[in-house]
Amino acid sequence: MIVRRTAAVLAAIAVIGGAPAPAALAASPSPSPALPSELYGSTDPTYDGVWRQSFALLAQHTAGVRPAAKAVDWLTGQQCANGAFAPYRADPKAACDAKTPVDTNSTAAAVQALAALGGHDAQTGKAVSWLKSVQNEDGGWGFTAGGASDTNSTSAVIGALSAAGGASAPQEAKSAKGHSPYDALVKLSIPCDRKDGGAFAYQPDKKGELAANADATAAGVVAALGKGFVAGPGKEAGSAACAGGDKLTPADAAHNGAVHLAGALKKTPYLETALPGAKPQPDYGNTADAVVALAATGSPSAAQRPLEWLEKNAADWAAKSGPAAYAQLIFAAHATDTDPHNFGGVDLVEKLNATGPAPQTAEKTKKTDETHKKSDSGFGVWWYVGVFVVAGIGIGFLLSGRSRKQQP
User: Fold this and answer.
1) pLDDT in tens, 49-89
2) Residue spans with biased composition (Basic and acidic residues) (predicted)?
3) What are the chain's domains?
């Protein structure tokens, strides 16, 4: 989403619906011959190469597609000897040094993708070790080593820890002062009795105050549940009220964040983003992330309206934005049991595959008339009656814009 902060997030500015990209990050009209053939997307990968590749591969896997070995090898080849990943290394044969701009977000995204694909324990193990080595005393992570903890980075790492080590891994990842990632995350949740109570802030401001951030809230909700970028439908939510109290649990924080998102989506079926000097406009990536967050917390009715809006309106945005955008929509489809091959009439998987090397195989299903019926929860329930393997010799995948979004 996918679409988040600092360097990797700068590239996501182009992912926000209709937002003009900075000149240095503007999309080129056609694939550059200088770009690796194994890489998904045709824009400058300087700030989001590993991010969008990871998103693409993870989305393909989620949709039952086996990525091209060549694309996976490109991703593993981007890893530094210490286990970290930088947004993009033009010459992966050159050893990383102190000037190599490694970051937690690229590393966490790569871990989630490689862990899902399987067979990369050595790479994910080294990456997790590096992430733990740069954990802040409060239990969280900033975008770069030593940076102040933020919700988005901490959430991405929680997803990586869970993907590589299981559900208990994030809680067991204690800082030198004994704080877990969840401790840092809960502190970034705005108390219920304050403005925008329940939302997550990206970071405290200079005065220590917390301001609601939609991108951070969607990320924080899913991470507080111990999930990564990919999350399935959760159990039915309980109370629709924000949960107060002095001792907020991660589950409470996730619930509160979902309540805030549901409230924000009552006025319009999409979340908005306003760049400096511009009017607010629909934010497709944040909206897709919100759908995942709401579905994961067991709020299908709240997720239904933004999901339907995405099905009707997100195709052009994804086509202009590239593999990360298609990945975010596939994650939203997965979270709501929606067919990614028929997302508002668009085959998201086919579109994603077309942005890079051809995958090895793709599983597709045919639906009976019953698949068109809606479940009581409001989401389509698909009864698959046949699985067909479509061979496609070649290369594979993806990464994102959750490159994700920007800093507040």
Assistant:
1) 999 999 999 999 999 999 999 999 999 999 999 999 999 99
2) 363-375
3) 6-391 (1.50.10)
